[in-house]
Amino acid sequence: MVLALLPVVLLIALGMGLRRGGFLDAAFWAGAERLAYFVLLPSLFFHGLATAQLDALPVADLALTLIVATSAVAGLVLALRPLLRIDGPAFTSVFQGAIRFNNYVGVTLAAGLFGGKGIALSAICNAAIVPTVNILCVMVFARHGSARPTGLGIARQIVTNPLVVSSLAGIGFRLLGLHLPPGLEPALRTLGAASLPLGLLCIGAALEFGAVRAWIRPIAAASAVKFLAMPLATVLIALALGLSGPALTVALLFQVLPTASSSYIMARQLGGDAPLMAGIVAAQTLLALAAIPLVLSVIALAVPL
């Protein structure tokens, strides 16, 4: 696990160095993030699922484990809202920090651990968690944020999410028994492979550590839920459903990932506390370096992964 994390850490650090050093124009990073999110990562998920042997993967059990665990932890965070003693916009950032995850890091680690099977499992995880998390977060923004999206706006965010669309399209493509044309298959594979390093570089470029010191308590609360409650709920539900092996490992991996840098963009657009969100993203990215291998190692002692 440490060896699988090392290239992730190095690429994030390189992205941070390139941004701080001014080697690339500031406008490059916004375009690169958009390219990775709307083109490269969807290509990776579609190709991984369209070419995967889904009949050998526990698709339903994996998806149900992640949806139930994420929803249960979201309910816990809502129940703890009075104890946090923060305003509504700040609570939306804590909520995002507790349940949102970084796709790029998850796919990179899963691919490093299990190769093509890890990519297919990652795509299933995204197909299950991305719509679940988006629905929950947008609903919390509607209740606690300073901007109030409409029901139509919530639905549009979900059905147009490129990660959801590409994952469901890949599953449908495979279930229909279709095959990618010889010229298209390597093109999609190459585009997908490019998403991993570029996405990690963008994460490093987006990190801002200045807000961490000013928000110790809410950052600690979001991180405690993310790195303790979320994996615990996931493993309990997975065991109840009989999930095991690489599928359980990847499920746990995705549930202990740091919050995505896109959370900051959502906080700005929907009336959250953007500075606090930036601090949570930065702090969790650092904490994840120790939390991911530690959580998986501890759980592996009690549960065969």
From TrEMBL:
<dbReference type="GO" id="GO:0005886">
    <property type="term" value="C:plasma membrane"/>
</dbReference>
<feature type="transmembrane region" description="Helical">
    <location>
        <begin position="154"/>
        <end position="176"/>
    </location>
</feature>
<feature type="transmembrane region" description="Helical">
    <location>
        <begin position="35"/>
        <end position="52"/>
    </location>
</feature>
<keyword id="KW-0813">Transport</keyword>
<feature type="transmembrane region" description="Helical">
    <location>
        <begin position="59"/>
        <end position="80"/>
    </location>
</feature>
<dbReference type="InterPro" id="IPR038770">
    <property type="entry name" value="Na+/solute_symporter_sf"/>
</dbReference>
<feature type="transmembrane region" description="Helical">
    <location>
        <begin position="119"/>
        <end position="142"/>
    </location>
</feature>
<protein>
    <recommendedName>
        <fullName>Transporter</fullName>
    </recommendedName>
</protein>
<keyword id="KW-1133">Transmembrane helix</keyword>
<dbReference type="Pfam" id="PF03547">
    <property type="entry name" value="Mem_trans"/>
</dbReference>
<keyword id="KW-1003">Cell membrane</keyword>
<feature type="transmembrane region" description="Helical">
    <location>
        <begin position="276"/>
        <end position="303"/>
    </location>
</feature>
<dbReference type="InterPro" id="IPR004776">
    <property type="entry name" value="Mem_transp_PIN-like"/>
</dbReference>
<dbReference type="GO" id="GO:0055085">
    <property type="term" value="P:transmembrane transport"/>
</dbReference>
<keyword id="KW-0472">Membrane</keyword>
<keyword id="KW-0812">Transmembrane</keyword>
<feature type="transmembrane region" description="Helical">
    <location>
        <begin position="196"/>
        <end position="216"/>
    </location>
</feature>
<comment type="similarity">
    <text>Belongs to the auxin efflux carrier (TC 2.A.69) family.</text>
</comment>
<feature type="transmembrane region" description="Helical">
    <location>
        <begin position="228"/>
        <end position="256"/>
    </location>
</feature>
